[in-house]
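Technical appendix A lists one of the benchmark inputs used to test multi-chain prediction within the project. The record comprises three sequence entries:
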Amino acid sequence: MSEAVNQGHVEMHVDEFGIATIEFGHPMSNSLPGKILRKLAETITDAGKDSAVKVIVLKSAGDKAFCAGASFDELISIQDLETGKVFFSGFAQVINACRKCPKLIIGRVQGKAVGGGVGIASAVDYCYATRFAEVKLSELAVGIGPFVVGPAVERKMGLSAMSQLAINATEWRTAEWAMQNGLYADVFDSEHEMDEEITRLATVLAKSSPEAMAELKKIFWIGTENWDQLLAERAGISGTLVLSDFTVNAINSFKKK
Amino acid sequence: MSEAVNQGHVEMHVDEFGIATIEFGHPMSNSLPGKILRKLAETITDAGKDSAVKVIVLKSAGDKAFCAGASFDELISIQDLETGKVFFSGFAQVINACRKCPKLIIGRVQGKAVGGGVGIASAVDYCYATRFAEVKLSELAVGIGPFVVGPAVERKMGLSAMSQLAINATEWRTAEWAMQNGLYADVFDSEHEMDEEITRLATVLAKSSPEAMAELKKIFWIGTENWDQLLAERAGISGTLVLSDFTVNAINSFKKK
Amino acid sequence: MSEAVNQGHVEMHVDEFGIATIEFGHPMSNSLPGKILRKLAETITDAGKDSAVKVIVLKSAGDKAFCAGASFDELISIQDLETGKVFFSGFAQVINACRKCPKLIIGRVQGKAVGGGVGIASAVDYCYATRFAEVKLSELAVGIGPFVVGPAVERKMGLSAMSQLAINATEWRTAEWAMQNGLYADVFDSEHEMDEEITRLATVLAKSSPEAMAELKKIFWIGTENWDQLLAERAGISGTLVLSDFTVNAINSFKKK
């Protein structure tokens, strides 16, 4: 296994207004190995429990890709179903951490989002983006599918947009399209403009009623009470498919390149 | 308590084609006290039972705001949970009256809609608007939330648009945005053009099969059978929050202005 | 009964890549009598079982209307509830065949779609269209309603768009509008451009993992397990309404023209 699976970071900073900024990053286009995904889920959960935190901003490092999905190096090392399930549970844990966190989470998507990256953008409560924040669910191209992130994407964008992304797995959709389909609340020309708006909204929310926001959070996520189990089942589907001849061959041909 | 809670009107007129026009109004930007909300709900219910009525047009008075939500004067007079529940049940009754009315209801939104006003626009079956019909769910700004209107807004506009409105509570969204997100079927440049189209559609529907329209109404509202109870529970959430220190302080600082 | 109910065709061709193209047609604007609808449902079901088929393209004949709905000649011959139920079950069978087919289905909509035609466009998994592919649910104009196609249209386009189409039954909605509301994934200026893109996507999918696509198909249709029964009940609603005085009179006045 390459060094990539041991790289990456998750950092949290809480300012004097109670705005917690959580940043994840990885040198390879912010594609995330399991280790980082688990740390990200834990950090979100901790922020949810920290009474000093009023609102959370979730962002990634750098000014290129927001998140290229799961670590490809880790994917190609999967040899058995159990490892596969654990691997595909990585984004499930992040999505479930966002879902169960009683604080509102603002997403900041500065660039392309792929696979699990689209899942994160779907799982935050209010998502800002720049016009560079194109989206793609590329899983089918390697013989799997967006089974784990599917429920989060469908909940936010609807069945039609989710299935379009899942089927047409090699095509980028624009940030504008993602906004029209409910993934992003707003799309900006630059990171600078996006950050001004994020600061404004986060500051307003940090001064808003914590009880009211906690109740809002509950009503936003009604009907997802079974997602701990559902996303685990979905990880099982991907974990099974990734061992199929089709995917093994697809991955081997990637490796040769 | 100010005089405002005793002001306002609800009127119904049925023309020779069976088109019932129901108008509500209040001198303060059509913000509605409980008394008027109850009368509006009753009038919609009565029109639903009246065999002379084939289709209903729901509108508000004047050419400015469609509806500024619930009466602020009544809100600030709430001292206990029971009064709070009754207050927040006002729009619940109107929404449930629209939902249970066996006739199709056409909405006419000539101007801004806030809070419960967005709830009414969501609860009609087909909603026309002018380009002045901006929307806002401002509840969070005073420490509560759009809990009662939430189910109606989400049913019509989807989870993403509903949560965007609920979280970004101080921002107006354009009529165009509301149309793209399913609240309005069409947006016109002027009241005149909107009224021509309303007359056309209402006239067509008044001549359409009452049995077919009653069956359509049923399928549009499948899955909302629990809303009498659900919206009462939601009124309880708001009724509790409005007594919190946060909201009491927020209201007091409004009063001082 | 006129000759029209015995006309029409359904043809299937499978190419060397496993792309099955299913074409239906009828001389009267591709309006479909029960006989053709049953054959279309069977052909889709057979293609789903055929291991040589990797992906399905569903299209209609000619370069005018995609599908004008159910056969009007057959509709006006209905004299009793049982015949009515069978008639209205025609599109239910096609929708259910699409739903239960384990292969992904790409739709090709080259022109106007009415009633059941919109149902077919909704029931495929990924739908392409040209800018001529306007849509209308005209059922209410003859005293019935889009009860059978309603669940498919609502699943793909949402409640708001479905109810707008059902209520405003005489108005065409543009292909652009249908795309913005999730019916079409993409809209092209010409059939030629659409066909290039269909060939591209179908070729990619024919080479994709059949297991992964079968799992995707399952998650796209979660929650529709009761549609065999639901759409049969819906056919019963239409079957009852079509015998009402209102519809009998409406049909008689059409006949006189």
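Strands of chain B lie at 9-14, 19-25, 55-60, 105-109, 113-114, 126-130, 135-136, 186-188. The radius of gyration of chain B is 17 Å. Comparable benchmark entries are summarised in Table A2.
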